[in-house]
Each structure stands twice: as structure tokens, then as C-alpha cells.
Amino acid sequence: MDKISELAQVSKRTVYNHFETKEALVMHIMSEMWRKSTIQPDFKYIPNTPLHDQLSSILLAEAKMFSSKENLELSRVAFGHFFTTLKRYKKRWVSFQQEKPPCFNG
């Protein structure tokens, strides 16, 4: 949440006013990134321009979007949250598996 509020240049309180939990924020970021990646650019086929040049323009626009500072920062935050959460749950699962149920402590 610190990184998000820093990127947005708002307080953490403001972020929490819009997103109840970190998970809700991360899911919003991920769905927004997905939406942006699936938007079809407004390119029109131009018969007199070589197809190679037109396709190159589309690929460059996609690469620019994915490599933008905004997209990279949001990706780091979202994926960092998922990996941290996954590690925490795995750690809890391992400790849970190692515990003996009370009925076996006899």
C-alpha cells in the first residue's frame, strides 16, 4: 500500500477509501492491466503502405505500452503482492501440516 500511495501521490488512507483491502486493489490493478493489454489499437489497414511497416507499428505500440514506467511499476506491485501472499500461505500450510491434532498428543 505504501508503494501504491507513493505512485498515486496520495495518502494510504485515500487508497483505502477507494479499496477496502490490498487484495481488492491488486485485483483491480490486474484487471486493469488485462483490459489495457486486450484493447485493440486503433490501426487501420492502409493499402499503399507495406504490411511489414504497419505490423511493425502495431508491435512497437504494444511494446511501448508494456514497457511503460507506469505499467512496470504496477506489475511489480501486483506480482510482488501475489508472491508474498503465496509464500505466506505456503509457510502457514507447512506449519499446519507439522502440528499434531490435540487428539494425538496422548
Description:
With 106 residues, this protein is an all-alpha fold. 73% of the residues lie in helices and 0% in strands. The protein is built from five helices and no strands. α3 (22-38) crosses α5. The longest helix is centred in the last third of the chain and has 30 residues, at 69-98.
Can I get a quick summary?
With 106 residues, this protein is an all-alpha fold. Helices cover 73% and strands 0% of the residues. It is elongated, with a radius of gyration of 22 Å.
Biggest sheet details: none
Annotation field: number of helices: 5
Given the C-alpha coordinates, what overall shape results? elongated
DSSP summary, beta strand count: 0
Q: What is the H/E order?
A: HHHHH
Average pLDDT confidence is 78
Radius of gyration: 22 Å
Helical content (DSSP H or I, runs of 4+): over 70%
The end-to-end span amounts to 46 Å
Structural class: mainly alpha
Give start-end ranges of low-pLDDT stretches.
none
State which percent range the strand residues make up: under 5%
Domain HTH tetR-type: 1-37
InterPro entries: Homeodomain-like_sf (IPR009057), HTH_TetR (IPR001647)
Protein name: TetR/AcrR family transcriptional regulator
Keywords: DNA-binding
Topology, please?
Blueprint: H1 2-8, H2 12-18, H3 22-38, H4 51-66, H5 69-98
Helix pairs in contact: 3-5
Essential attributes:
HTH_TetR; mainly alpha; elongated
